[in-house]
Structures are given as structure tokens and as C-alpha cells.
Sequence to fold (209 residues):
Amino acid sequence: MQDVTVVDHPLVRHKLTLMRKKDTSTNSFRQLLKEIGGLLCYEITRDLPLQTVEIETPLMPMSAPAIAGKKLVFAAILRSGMGMLEGMLELVPAARVAHVGLYRDPETLGSVEYYFKAPTALGDRLVIVVDPMLATGNTAIAAVQRLKDAGARDIRMACLLAAPEGVEKFHAAHPDVRVWTAAVDERLNDHGYIVPGLGDAGDRMYGTK
Fold:
């Protein structure tokens, strides 16, 4: 699919298979989501700009590469985005964090915002939106629009699973935002869930229903 990068590294594929299993425990699911979050972050930041800085090793001075520009922003869509965020912050601990509180109306499947808090100067930073599931696309569309309204210009989307319908709708709304995901599944069911999928990521993370 255009503007979608499927991260098909063997470790990602293996961990995703474990997460899909219905008998995977809450603790294991949460740990696997954290680990895949870090692996996706590694791929989504592969092209970060570098600059040369002067340092001293224990043996001699040298010129060495360092990431250029302002700190990244990870924008976690609450609540399930927090699981992937943890793994990303382990990889980039200096990143700043935005929180976007959205929930899906069970009747309309539309997104309802209840909270938003983001760092300043979003327009000068790479913003990575984090949410395990890109299903109908409504939540991701609303989150990206909210960040754009707050000044963000360079935005990428990281998700664990995507549905073709959600990707198509998302890119119709935000053609400038590329998606990184561990897999694009078959379709959505009548309730707006990805199939074969892995169920509700938030419920499986926190042991709720």
C-alpha cells in the first residue's frame, strides 16, 4: 500500500504472533507491545537528520554524528498508545510526549476528544503519533488533525495493526502523513474491529473489558 511501511522484521512478526494468541496473559501482552513499540520506533526514525559534533573519547578528540534539530515528540493516543510509548521512550528517552485523549463512540464509531496536552513548538519537531490499532481510521484522523491545529507539520503514524479500510480513509484525510505498522490485516468486521486482529488492545493491556 502506498505511504505505508510494513515493518516485517522477524522479531516483530514473532512478537506480533504471540500478541494475537487469545491465551497470552495481560502481563505478556503488555511487555510484547512495549517491545514492538521500540522496534517500530527504530524503523520510523531511521532517516533522522544528523550533524557532526566534536567530542573527546578516552583516547583522542574526534568528529562524530549526533541527531540534529529539536527533540522528537511522541504523541500517544490514550489509552492504548501508552503501551507502545513506553518502548519508544526507552529507545529515545529525551523525547517529549504529547497526550491525545480520544475514545470511539460505540454507536457512530466516531472519535470524541476528552483531553489534549502537547509540548510547545510542535512545528519545529518531528511528531510521531502512537496508537496500536488503525482500524476505522477515525481516531487517528482526529488525533493528527488536533496536532496539526496545534502547529505540528512533520507528522508520522506508528501503529501495531492496520486495516485496509482505515489506511485508505486516513490517507484521504491526511495524505502527507506516512504510516508505519507491523501488519496490515484483512479487513474490518461489522463492529469496526480489525480481523483477524488481536482483540481490543487497551482491554488486553490492562485486563479490562
In short: The chain is about 35% helix and 30% strand.
